[in-house]
Amino acid sequence: MGGGGPEGQGAGDPGDPGADPPEQADGEEGGVPSGEGGGARSAEVWRAVGAGLSGAGLAVGRLASAVGRGAQAALQTVDPDVLRHLAQLPLVGLTLLAPGRPPVRALPDDGHRPVVFVHGLGGGPGNFLAMRGWFRVMGRGRTWSVGFGEGGGALDLAQALREYLAEVALACGLAEGQKLDLVAHSMGGLVCRLALSDPATAARVERLVTLGTPHAGTHAARYANTRLARELRPDSELMEVLGRQVPWPGPPAMPRLTSFYSPADMMILPPEAARVEGARNVEVPGFTHFTWLFHPRGWQAVLTELEREEEG
Question: Where are the domains of the chain?
Answer without folding.
Answer: 90-306
